[in-house]
Design a protein that fits this description.
- The chain contains 11 helices and no strands.
- By secondary structure, the protein is mainly α.
- Helix 3 (56-68) crosses helix 11.
- The model has no long low-confidence stretch (mean pLDDT 81).
Length: 273
């Protein structure tokens, strides 16, 4: 066999091996196994007392206990339901306000300035006002979730509308497109690349707002399980529920927003991360 043929064969074999071996998954697994190992080593070194810094096994036992007694599943369902309602309202309201801000100058100069100002306000500060308006109930929590994410979605919507080439809007008007047709077929598709990041950012804000509000609301939820762990001085349960919250956020980011970003990048010919 010639040297050239051998080189081609070796390159093909290397490419086939890289295709078969999921190197990305291997890197991620090694990274988290390393974190777990470091955690265990710090625990064994007894830098802090076990009741202050629990080990992986202690956290695992607390997590298993909450799974077996059903508290984690019920709490998770309540939290996800609240998140779904509040975040859905944020998307609808944020899109409407953002499109209006990007399309009408007077709306951008009035409501737009208010939205920018409210964006700097921490979402947890809405909770006292929500309690006064709605009382200690589901409406108060959903309101906090709504206010935590609606502004970021509105701002990203405005940015997406302003990023649409003016020629596209003029062409739609020249062909006799009515305002709702222009919005449906030109504005919404044109603003989508910018909107993906806004929706992702709005989700993260809403998720944090929800958990912060649930800490103060005495009903079964992920936030309430955190509060119970604090009240019982059970650091293992606190860490276990924190890991569950992080895991939910990572799964949603990977399965929902990750796929959405890839689709938008392929559809619009953008450079993916």
């Amino acid at each position: 066999m010639s040297a050239a043929a051998s080189a081609v064969s070796s390159a093909a074999a290397g490419k086939s091996l890289s295709t078969r071996v999921p190197w990305k998954a291997v890197r991620i697994a090694v990274f988290y196994l390393g974190l777990l190992g470091a955690w265990q080593l710090i625990y064994l070194a007894e830098v802090w007392a076990p009741y202050v810094f629990p080990g992986p096994r202690d956290v695992y036992e607390a997590l298993r206990y909450n799974i077996e007694n059903g508290d984690l599943w019920e709490a998770g369902k309540v939290t996800i339901r609240r998140m779904a309602i509040g975040y859905s309202l944020s998307i609808v309201i944020g899109l409407a306000v953002g499109v209006a801000m990007g399309s009408l100058r007077w709306v951008d100069e009035t409501i737009g300035s208010l939205v920018l100002g409210l964006q700097s306000l921490p979402s947890v500060t809405w909770f006292p006002l929500a309690l006064l308006w709605f009382g200690l109930n589901e409406k108060a929590i959903i309101f906090v979730v709504l206010m935590g994410s609606v502004n970021s979605i509105a701002i990203s919507s405005r940015t997406g509308v302003l990023g649409i080439p003016p020629l596209q809007l003029r062409a739609s008007r020249m062909f006799g497109g009515r305002w709702w047709e222009q919005t449906l077929y030109v504005v919404l598709p044109g603003m989508l690349p910018s909107m993906v990041q806004g929706l992702k950012l709005g989700w993260s804000f809403a998720w944090r707002s929800l958990l912060a509000a649930e800490l103060l609301f005495a009903s079964l939820s992920l936030g309430h399980l955190l509060q119970v762990g604090r009240d019982l001085n059970d650091v293992s349960q606190v860490v276990a529920i924190m890991l569950v919250i992080v895991a939910v956020g990572m799964v949603v980011d990977r399965l929902v927003f990750g796929r959405m970003e890839r689709w938008v990048n392929e559809r619009w010919g953008l450079r993916g991360g």
